[in-house]
User: Fold this.
Amino acid sequence: MSAAEPKAARRKAWLTNVNAWLLLLPAVVLLATFTHYPILATLYHSFFSLGRGGASHFVGLENYIYMLDDDVFRQVLRNNIVFALATVPTSIALALLMAVWVDKKMAGRSFLRLAFFTPTVLPMIAVANIWLFFYTPDYGLLDQFLKSLGFSGHNWLGDPSTVMSCLAVMVVWKEAGFFMIFYLAALQTIPPELKEAAAVEGASRWYFFRRVTLPLLMPTTLFISINALINSFKLVDQLVIMTKGGPNNASSLLLYYIYEVAFTFQDTTYAATLTVTLIAILAAVALTKFVYLDRRIHYQ
Assistant:
């Protein structure tokens, strides 16, 4: 081997690395500009005062202490937890049911898949207006249906006892079809030999579903549950159209409260504090997934 060959090999490896980094550079720049820098800037501003009528100054953890004493923050956080508990399990269960149904060979299967998936592709503002037409008092479709049965109408979005349930129904309707696609793809990867072996052993369909299908779908279920949980903390568009957080913050969720504090009350530093808290909650969910749950549900 000549002395020039190792040098040529090193040069080729160096050019390969440079080429790889140049290909990654646009994505790295966009990620740093629109994700990492905003997060760091938000964290930085959360330690400062608002600065109205003067220069903003460092206040340390005062904004976080104020947040812990904020009755509205506690209420919207409680609302968000209740909303997540209502929408996440329901969306997952409905998505799995629809996926198992449309995975079978039957007439009209393509139409059913399209019908279940259609709400997913609708814009959020359009979805909010559709359901607003359902829930509008007196002349909304829901009240019209109740009146046809002899019942009186109801202000569904104006009643604190029903507004959160109305929003949960809307979110489940929109998201279940999207999660169905993941379950449908996972069902089609289950080897048919397992079903044939279960049939030979005389196992019932329910026993096969409970003992074989569900465990094999656990990685998909974990992925869907994490996404559904994150989505439950990101709801804002529908609230702007339908309730604006009312009545009396009964339907206000954390992201909408951040929007309200930043753009209605013009308190950007407190909004930054709330945003850091939201990011911390979502980061904790993601870490739980990657560090703990992934290892327990994958079959190697």
Q: What stands out?
A: The chain has 13 helices and no strands. The chain has a mean pLDDT of 87. Residues 69-297 form a domain with the MetI-like fold fold (CATH 1.10.3720.10). The radius of gyration is 25 Å.
